[in-house]
Design goal:
single chain, alpha+beta, Nuclear Transport Factor 2, Chain: A, four-stranded antiparallel sheet
């Protein structure tokens, strides 16, 4: 999919519409657990001293049926303001096999 190299959009730091340079970064893998779940597990293990009591003991991901079956990764675009040089991330990624900047 083709994206423009420069995009005119709102900068939350300058608080006005400015030109932004668009760059593609590697998508970072988020944790499978939410923040609250991590805190609960940490709290639970503190009092007993026995860790997570097997709650996180899943089998290997490679044994799962639908492991790694998606065709394309979601885009992770970064917008850098030309005036203040601050970077903002893309709100929602789109599934795309190939990204081109025109």
């Amino acid at each position: 999919m083709k994206f423009p190299k420069i995009r005119r959009t709102y900068c939350k730091f300058c608080k006005k519409h400015t030109e932004h340079k668009v760059a593609l970064t590697k998508k970072k893998t988020p944790s499978t657990l939410k923040r609250g779940a991590k805190q609960r597990i940490k709290k639970r293990g503190k009092c007993t001293g026995k860790g997570n009591l097997g709650k996180l003991s899943k089998g290997a991901l490679s044994k799962w049926k639908r492991y790694n079956k998606k065709q394309a990764k979601k885009t992770d675009l970064r917008y850098q303001c030309k005036e203040c040089k601050k970077t903002q991330t893309q709100r929602k990624g789109i599934r795309v096999k190939k990204v081109e900047f025109a």
